[in-house]
Design a protein that fits this description.
Number of strands: 15
Distance between the termini: 9 Å
Number of helices: 15
Largest sheet: 8 strands, parallel
Radius of gyration: 22 Å
Structural class: alpha/beta
Shape: globular
Mean pLDDT: 93
Amino acid sequence: MIRYHAPWVLPISQPPIRDGWVVVDGGRVVDIGAGEAGEAGRAGRAGRAGRAGGAGGPGEVDERDLGDGVLMPGLVNAHTHLELSHLRNAIAPGPDFVGWARQVIAVRRRSADVRDPEILEGVAQGIDEAVRAGTALVGDISNSLVTFEPLTRSRLAAVLFYELIGFKRSDANALIEQASRQLHALTPTDAVRTSLAAHAPYSVSPQLLLAIRQATDRAPFAPCSIHLSESKEEVRFIQRADGPWRTLLEELGVWEPSWAAPGVSPVQYLDELGFLGRGSLVVHGVQMSPDDLARLSARGATLVTCARSNAYTGAGTPPIEQFYASGVRVAVGTDSLASTPDLSVFAELAAMRALAPSVPASVLLDSATRQGAVALGFGSEYGTIEPGKRARLLTVTPSRALTAAADVEEYLVSGIEPEQIQWIES
């Protein structure tokens, strides 16, 4: 049993605790508090700082001082594509989203073998980078399931979303059956689970969208992800069935002539189709209206924002302040290394802070921890420091003195480097 002491403890589930402590036993949090704890009070901090550690007999507590570090839960990256990690610096910024997507399609077609050593090395490097940046849990999108085994061997917890693409209505049943067989062949662990995802409303038929939703609904709680309202081109396609997405579908030979434009927003289209609901993670939302956000909030969906990626791909600037004002649940993702310079959720928080100065830092931090964990179905294990939860905790060493709770929270969304992060023993 270890009691960690820090000048600040950030539980997320309650305000920051000055001169706080957290007791960990068997990899779980068993207690949390402030000030003196048994024989280990504030007066003993100097002595504890130099102690090598090592608990005594049964029931004794090993006191550990974390120096100036802020103790907090590991972060949650609710949306990434680890299998695209090998594409870092390979895709140029997009003047428009479809132009960027064309680049990705072309590069991936040149690397069709998912067991390519370059792809596997990229996955391993992406996982290591995420951990170094303070991430404990990810929602990972995969079109090949190549990331499953590396994730099970890593320190990350994860929901691996098997993402399906198929705009031809005749493909729906075959795609679902094949995906079910492939997922059944995997053996999920306590830390790595699997589910299904739909790519986007411009690349997945109504029949396949409903089949994915029905498949996830059959599980006790299986989150379901989809890219939604990411670009102006998507909005145009759903409203009018024309524009750059129609052109690309025709070029790829996957256009469905019987598909008719719903003539509404992408969010309204999915809502009326019956796709949105509890467990829905809708990613990006750059082009969402107030009515779209109200629909998501009413359905209990979670909106995952990836601000830096949106700028790189040409999708636009997400209206983050509107996201929070609408009452919709907001989580944070980095997207892939094909569209972001790193997999740091702390860097994503800094970008969000710049775009949404009116949103309290505590709310942004909640999105990067608790909201992501709940959305991925890991809310009882990760996202906050509370008794019973996993002690996947980290410390952030500040570069200046932090004297008030608000100061601590604001500092953490101002841009934290991996060198400032250290995981505690659990």
